[in-house]
Design brief:
Elements (H helix, E strand, L loop, with lengths): L2 E7 L3 H12 L4 E4 L23 H14 L3 E3 L3 E6 L5 E5 L4 E9 L3 E2 L8 H4 L4 E2 L2 H4 L8 E4 L6 H7 L6 E4 L10 H7 L3 E3 L3 E7 L2 E7 L4 E3 L2 E4 L4 E2 L3 H4 L23 E3 L10 H35 L1
Parallel strand pairs: 1-2, 1-6, 2-3, 6-17, 8-15, 9-10, 9-15, 10-11
Antiparallel strand pairs: 4-5, 5-6, 7-16, 12-13, 13-14
Helix pairs in contact: 1-2, 1-8
This protein binds flavin-adenine dinucleotide.
The site of flavin-adenine dinucleotide has 41 residues, from α1 and α8.
Length: 311
C-alpha cells in the first residue's frame, strides 16, 4: 500500500510550494503533475521577486529541484479520481489505475484558458497576445494595444490598459453589447470601439501586427489582450462537492481548507487572484495547516496509546 502524509495534485507554483514546506516538515509527500501549468505559453514570467522575466519552464524546473532536496516524490501522471474511504484516508487513482493513499489531499490543479476561436490567436498567445495586464502590459507600454472581447465584457480591461498606453482599442468581433454608460466612458478615455466581425489576426514571429476584419479592412496593433473566461483544469474538487463561486472557482477558508476534512485547495483553482506569487503563498499556507493537523493527529494517537498502556 503506497501511503503518504499528503498527496498534492498539481505541480505548479501552488503545489510545489506546498510540497517544499511539507518536505521541510519531514512529511512523506507525493506530487502528481501533468506539466500543463497555466503560464506555459508565455515567453516570460513577471511579478515574482528575484525571478523577473524567467521562463515558466525554468521556474518549474528550479522549484522541482528544491522539492527533491527534501525527499518529496513527483509522479508525472494525471490523477483521474480521488475519494475518501471509511478509514478517513484519501484514495487517489492515477491514469494507469495505480492507487495511492494519503491522510491529507491538496488540490492545486489550476485553471485552463479557452482561447477565442480566431485564426492566428494560438500562434501568438503568450508572445504578443495575453490576458493579464499585470503580467505582460509593461513590456508593451506606450504601444498600440487592442482588447479582444467577444464572449465577455472587456470594458474594465480596456480602461485598465490605459494605464500602460494612450493607444487602446476594443474589438468586439461582431458583438455590440455594452452596459449603459460604458461606451461613453470608453470614448471619454479615447478608446476606439470596433465592432466589426474579425477574420483573423496576423503577425511575424509571434508578434501580432494586424487585425483583419471579414470586410477586409485592417487595424494595426502591437499587442492584444483578451477576456474569454476560464475553466477548472480538473474536476477533482467538484467530485468532493466543494462549494464553487459563480465564476467556477473553489471556495475555501483563509487557510485553503474546504468543507471536507483534510481536503485543501490552493492556487488559481480557488477564489483568489491569479498570480504565481499568490498561488505559491496559498500552497505554503495550506502546507502549514496540513502539517499542524498531522502533528495533532499523531499527538492524539500517542495520548490514546498511553491511556491503553496505563489501564
Ligand atoms: C499566458 C499567461 C501568462 C501569465 N503570466 C504570469 C506572470 O507573468 N506572473 C504571474 O504571477 N502569473 C502569471 N500568470 C498566472 C499564473 O500562470 C498562475 O497564477 C499560476 O500558474 C497558478 O499556479 P497554480 O499552481 O495554481 O496552477 P498551475 O500553474 O496552472 O499548475 C497546475 C498544475 O496542475 C497540473 N494538473 C492539473 N490537473 C491535474 C491532474 N488531474 N493530475 C495531475 N496534475 C494535474 C497541471 O498539469 C499543472 O502543472 C500567467 C497566466 C497565463 C495564462
Amino acid at each position: 500500500m503506497q501511503m503518504f502524509d499528503c498527496i498534492i495534485v498539481g505541480g505548479g507554483p501552488a503545489g510545489l510550494n506546498a510540497a517544499v514546506v511539507l518536505g521541510r516538515c519531514q512529511r512523506k509527500v507525493l506530487v502528481f503533475d501533468t506539466e500543463q501549468y497555466r503560464n506555459r505559453y508565455t515567453h516570460a514570467m513577471h511579478n515574482y521577486l528575484t525571478r523577473d522575466h524567467i521562463k515558466p519552464a525554468e521556474f518549474i524546473l528550479l522549484s522541482q529541484q528544491e522539492i527533491f532536496k527534501y525527499g518529496v516524490e513527483l509522479v508525472k501522471k494525471r490523477v483521474v479520481h480521488a475519494r475518501k474511504n471509511d478509514e478517513d484516508l484519501f484514495v487517489v487513482k492515477d491514469e494507469e489505475g495505480t492507487i495511492y493513499y494519503s491522510k491529507k489531499l491538496l488540490i492545486a490543479t489550476g485553471l485552463a484558458d479557452p482561447l477565442p476561436e480566431v485564426e492566428g490567436f494560438q500562434e501568438m498567445y503568450g508572445t504578443s497576445i495575453f490576458h493579464c495586464p499585470y503580467c505582460d502590459a509593461w513590456e508593451v507600454r506606450d504601444k498600440r494595444i487592442g482588447v479582444y472581447a467577444k464572449n465577455k465584457n472587456g470594458f474594465e480591461l480596456a480602461i485598465a490598459l490605459k494605464g500602460w498606453s494612450n493607444e487602446v482599442a476594443i474589438f468586439t468581433d461582431g458583438v455590440k453589447k455594452f452596459k449603459p454608460g460604458e461606451k461613453e466612458e470608453l470614448r471619454a478615455n479615447d478608446i476606439d470601439i470596433v465592432t466589426l466581425p474579425i477574420e483573423k489576426v496576423t503577425g511575424t514571429n509571434g508578434m501580432i501586427e494586424k487585425i483583419i476584419f471579414k470586410n477586409s479592412s485592417e487595424y494595426l496593433v502591437d499587442a492584444l489582450f483578451f477576456v474569454n473566461g476560464f475553466t477548472q483544469q480538473c474536476n477533482l474538487a467538484e467530485t468532493f462537492d466543494c462549494e464553487m463561486s459563480k465564476q467556477g472557482k473553489v471556495l475555501t477558508n483563509q487557510y485553503q481548507q474546504t468543507k471536507t476534512a483534510g481536503l485543501y485547495v490552493a492556487g488559481d483553482a480557488d477564489k483568489d487572484m491569479h498570480f504565481v506569487v499568490v498561488a505559491a503563498a496559498e500552497g505554503a499556507k495550506a502546507a502549514v495547516i496540513i502539517n499542524k493537523e498531522l502533528q495533532k493527529e499523531i499527538s492524539k494517537q500517542k495520548m490514546q496509546a498511553a491511556k491503553v498502556v496505563g489501564e
